[in-house]
Amino acid sequence: MSKINDVYYLEIVSTEVDAVVAMHERLHGWQFSPPQPLLGNARVASQADGSRVAVRAPMHAQELTLVRPYR
């Protein structure tokens, strides 16, 4: 059963998508998908617990780099 603080989707917005993906692949062994157009070209890694981590570039000039958890 999930807890109230469980994160089911972690979105990372970065201007250095390839570097962030490579770092997480190296550190955690995660495998990221190719860019997913329906998710803003995010590259997504599914986790064993069913959660997902997505890394994408900003979608417009005003969007800041950030890490956004969805619970």
How is this structure best described in words?
- The relative contact order is 0.34.
- The radius of gyration is 12 Å and the shape is globular.
- The longest helix is centred in the N-terminal third of the chain and has 12 residues.
- It has 71 residues and is of the alpha+beta class.
Write a brief structural summary.
With 71 residues, this protein is an alpha+beta fold. The chain has one helix at residues 17-28, and strands at residues 9-13, 43-46, 52-56, 66-70. It has a single domain (9-70), classed as 2,3-Dihydroxybiphenyl 1,2-Dioxygenase, domain 1 (Roll), CATH 3.10.180.
Number of domains: 1
Strand content: 25-35%
CATH architecture: Roll
Record field, number of beta strands? 4
Shape: globular
The Rg value, from CA coordinates, equals: 12 Å
For the terminal residues, how far apart are their CA atoms?
Answer: 14 Å
Q: What is the structural class?
A: alpha+beta
Helix content: 10-25%
CATH class: Alpha Beta
Q: How do the strands line up in the largest sheet? A: 2-3-1-4
Q: Biggest β-sheet, characterized?
A: 4 strands, mixed
> What is the CATH third-level topology name?
2,3-Dihydroxybiphenyl 1,2-Dioxygenase, domain 1
Number of helices: 1
Low-confidence stretches are none
Query: What is the chain-wise order of helices and strands?
Result: EHEEE
Mean pLDDT: 95
Write the CATH homologous superfamily.
2,3-Dihydroxybiphenyl 1,2-Dioxygenase, domain 1
